[in-house]
Structure formats: C-alpha cells, structure tokens
Amino acid sequence: GYRGPPGFRNMSECQLITFIRDNCGGHECPAYPTELVFGLDMSDDVTPAAFKRMRSSLLALLEDMSISESNCPTGARVAVVGYSAHTKHLIRFHDYHRKSQLLEAVRNIALERTASRRHLGAAMRFVGNNVFKRVRQGVRVRKVAVFFSNGPSQDSEDIVTAVMEYRALNIMPAVVALRQSTNTQKALQ
Question: What pLDDT was estimated at residue 60?
Fold first, then answer.
C-alpha cells in the first residue's frame, strides 16, 4: 500500500519518561539505567591478598546495587574485565540475568598470574572500544567504568587518551587505587 503520513510527536522525551514512570504499574523505574564495567588489575605485582581486596570491594559494591534481571531498563547491567598488559572479558553484560548468579561468578574470579606490567590506559581504551560497544540505547542510559589498580601504570599517555575518548562517548571513568599512583592521578585530571 501507500506510505502513510508522517507521525507527530505530542510529548518530548522527558515528558514521555515522566508519563511512563507515572503509569508504570508499580514497577520501579530508574532515573538512569546504568551500564557498569569493572576492571580488575591482574598485573605482575598484584599479590593474592591485594586481588582479594579488589574482589571483596567489587562484591560489596554489587551487594548494595540494583542489578538488571531482565530487558526492562531497571538496575545496572554489569561486565567485568581483567587487565595487565592485555585486557580480557571475565563477565559480559549478557552473561548473568540474576544478581545471585552474578555475585557467585565474581566470587569465583581468580587471580591469573602474569609477568606483564600494568597498562591501565590500554585497559580503559579496550573497555571504551569493545565492552561499551553493545549497550542499552536511550537518552538517559549512564555508562560507568570503574578500574581497580594496585599501583602506577606504565602508560599514563594512554590514560589521557582514554579519558578524552570517554568524554566523547559519555562514559564516566573512576579508578580505585590500592597504592599511591601519582601518574594515574595526574592523567585523570
């Protein structure tokens, strides 16, 4: 048949979100659905005790968080990567649809022994280019990347580049350092 006339918009995006929240039927509607990536440092100087501290901190954050358990944009979707000189997926956004399964998977992440130095900037760029590639679409979707680090990085120039890329992609970065790291601190400013 013939193509119909173009539709019209009688609500702005903000008005539509407010309308959906008001008529949600008792479900919790988030202000900002969140895509959240955690990076765990697995460099050569990470001891089992330091790795356990990182994993415990990650578990504590996840315990207090609302985790997305369906396609409905409530809660956060979580991915986890491990990094040293190379970065690899440990948990992808779509791997677990139950908070209990996600927590158990994080508990089972083990420190992988490596002789590689820490390259935080490369890990940040990997997350920005690969992990955040397939995220929920929407005006209000928040993208956050949190990296646990055991010390200074070997690639502070890459951290600066990654931060600029994150700004362009609307990704909010955070680095939790277990030891003082002035080069990382300067690169993030």
Answer: 93
What does pTM read for this prediction? 0.81
For residues 107 and 54, is the Cβ–Cβ distance under 8 A? no
Which pair of tokens denotes residue 39? 């990076």
* Orientation of helix 48-63 relative to helix 99-107, angle to 10°: 170
Copy the structure tokens of residue 171.
Answer: 């990704």
* Bridge partner residues of 178 (DSSP): none
Concatenated DSSP letters of 123-179: HHHHHHHTGGGS----TT-EEEEEEEESS--S-HHHHHHHHHHHHHHTEEEEEEESS
For residues 20 and 26, what is the distance between their CA atoms, to the nearest angstrom? 11
> Do residues 143 and 76 make contact, with C-beta atoms less than 8 angstroms apart?
no
